[in-house]
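Lecture notes, continued. The same structure-token format from the folding unit now serves as the input rather than the output. Read the line below as a description of shape only.
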């Protein structure tokens, strides 16, 4: 997979996890996952890279990750795998943070989000996150990553993919619509209004 003349796209691996975590925390600084700290976010992306229920793509230049996108084929299955295989590790990393009632509430909201999605007849596959480093922005990289990810979804015979995005994040809302996602519904996510978009991959 090629991206411009200097950048390669690769499948995400555990060796990318630390850089991907740094990009996530920088690019989604106000997000709940970012608030859990670099060690937890790194462990999360290591687990995503290893899970059969998820995959991702990184844009790399000279061993530096300049952007990434991650997907899950089934967000509910991904949570189950992460808890079963990495639950103890996550519990240790979160031990100090779990004492906060607000964080506990958000953790449970995150875990039970898939069940809420099922009641709204939304697809199980989901685009989890996409971030591009500041030096690589303005070149259409986020769109290229998303389009490559959707192409891989088609190869996996996934027919529809959803994405959750904060309503106030206008650039991200516009980006997903440009990539073929259509508005489906809105939900409360950690006290913030968020929109859910769905891409129908069976359409040309």
């Amino acid at each position: 997979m090629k991206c411009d003349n200097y950048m390669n796209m690769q499948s995400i691996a555990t060796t990318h996890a630390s850089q991907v975590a740094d990009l996530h925390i920088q690019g989604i600084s106000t997000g709940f996952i970012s608030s859990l700290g670099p060690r937890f976010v790194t462990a999360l992306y290591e687990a995503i890279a290893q899970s059969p229920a998820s995959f991702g793509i990184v844009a790399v230049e000279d061993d530096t990750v300049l952007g990434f996108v991650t997907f899950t084929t089934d967000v509910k299955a991904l949570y189950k795998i992460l808890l079963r295989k990495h639950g103890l590790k996550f519990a240790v990393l979160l031990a100090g943070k779990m004492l906060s009632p607000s964080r506990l509430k958000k953790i449970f909201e995150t875990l039970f989000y898939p069940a809420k999605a099922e009641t709204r007849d939304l697809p199980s596959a989901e685009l989890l996150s996409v971030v591009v480093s500041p030096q690589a922005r303005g070149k259409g990289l986020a769109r290229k990553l998303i389009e490559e990810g959707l192409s891989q979804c088609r190869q996996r015979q996934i027919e529809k993919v959803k994405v959750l995005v904060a309503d106030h994040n206008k650039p991200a809302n516009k980006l997903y619509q440009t990539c073929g996602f259509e508005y489906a519904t809105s939900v409360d996510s950690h006290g913030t209004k968020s929109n859910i978009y769905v891409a129908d991959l069976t359409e040309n």
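Point for the exam: Residues 75-94 form the longest helix (20 residues).
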